[in-house]
Amino acid sequence: MTSHSRSARRRFFAGRSAGVPLAAMLALVTVPTAAAATTVPAESAESSCPASAEGQSIEMWSPLTGPDGETMTTLAERFSSENGLGISVEHVAQPEYVQKLNAAAAAGQLPAMTVVRVINVGELAARHVLQPFTDETQAILGEDFGADFPENVWVRGEYGGERYSIPLDIHTLVMYYNKDMLAAAGVEEPGAEPLSREAFEAMLADLEASGVQPIAIGTGFQGATLFQTFIAQFGGAVSNDEGTEATYASEAGVQALEYVNELKQQYSPDIAGANDPEVAFFKQEQAAIVMHGPWHIADLSQLDYVGFAPMPQVGDEYAVWAGSHQLGLTTEDPAEQAAAACWIKWLSDNSVEWAAAGQVPARTTARESDMLAEVAAPISRIASVVDRAIILPQVPELEGALWNQFGPVVDAVLMGETDDVAAALEQAQAQSQQVIDENIERYAAE
């Protein structure tokens, strides 16, 4: 993190906190040190919470429906039972949460807050489903709160010059590997830093020589996120920094897709289809490596032969596709906003425990905590790369405009249905640009 980005975020909060009494600022909870960034007592939230938050009931929706949802419910129940202000938090999982939020907004029945995928922040803010954090709610979080996050994820909580969400985690792709297969091939296990291209490709060659399938590469989500990872590593991007132009039909884009295809054709079983069949191949020990999202950590960590490592670096600069769960306010009631901010502050302070759900905490102090390896050892092995994660610009519906066009091209190339990668990407990029332009015009009118 540069000193410039850190000071810029401090200025942002300082500017938004103008008029907050000095006594209130001094009463804010201190961000935990790296050695103590877990198990912060819920009652510590009281020192930064205003009296208006007392006794409030907070309903929080989320798209968390698996083990991560169970972890979130447990944390919400713990905060509710321990805080001395009588604030209660109820976590309600909503699989189709964007549609549910839009419908609830139209009916005037929104919850107090929501967990929001970072790709949806701009859309929900533009539709006034999410409410901006006020001077008062930001004061509860703390003046230097934003300085404890990587710039790439912190800035994505802003839309139209206002803050609409607070990062909770960053979920990057993970390289899962079979320890037994690597040992049998005489290959040293990867460490917590990314493998170089030479080391990665040597590993694949050694695994193949030992008689096993080196890697499982499918289509759908996996193919598309590998494409986005490698295009950035080769110096390109799927869009410009403003999110107004699709840019993936570049030399770097062609190189990235060809590289993924080479890996698949040379080293992978024939895998395609929905529901992550490549992960099933890996679990059945039909391949030594699979690259996928961290939501598989909870399941795969039950298998003694599975190891965890960051994605390798095959280009000139390191990058990795990522998403992020963020926390946003949907109520306009000041008392509910204050209580929700108290919960957000506590949850963020205790985000080392959130790592148990298979998510990398967004807070730097949490990722650097000695407790992280105890709470979630696999997460501690991939946490070093989150500041180089790729998160799209905060433009409404940008991911769909891009992914819905290049995704089918990635699938077609990987399944051998087209071999003119450059032409296919150019055609898809033109379609993406048309959708981007239409979205910009549509949201400008709302």
Topology:
Blueprint: H1 3-16, H2 22-26, E1 57-62, H3 67-82, E2 88-93, H4 97-107, E3 113-117, H5 121-126, H6 135-141, H7 151-154, E4 158-159, E5 162-163, E6 166-167, E7 169-172, E8 174-178, H8 179-184, H9 197-209, E9 215-216, H10 220-233, H11 251-267, H12 277-283, E10 289-292, H13 297-300, E11 306-309, E12 320-323, E13 325-329, H14 334-349, H15 351-354, E14 360-361, H16 364-367, H17 372-375, H18 377-382, E15 389-390, H19 398-414, H20 421-444
Parallel strand pairs: 1-2, 1-3, 9-10, 12-15
Antiparallel strand pairs: 3-13, 4-5, 6-13, 7-12, 7-14, 8-10, 8-11
Helix pairs in contact: 6-14, 10-11, 10-19, 19-20
Describe the structure.
The protein has about 450 residues and is α/β, with parallel strands linked by helices. The chain folds into 2 domains: about 5-20 and about 30-170 and about 325-375, Periplasmic binding protein-like II (D-Maltodextrin-Binding Protein, domain 2), CATH 3.40.190; about 175-320 and about 395-445, D-Maltodextrin-Binding Protein, domain 2, CATH 3.40.190. Helix content is about 45%, strand content about 10%. Helix 6 runs parallel beside helix 14 (about 335-350). The longest helix is centred in the last third of the chain and has 24 residues, at about 420-445. The model is unreliable at about 1-40 (pLDDT under 50).
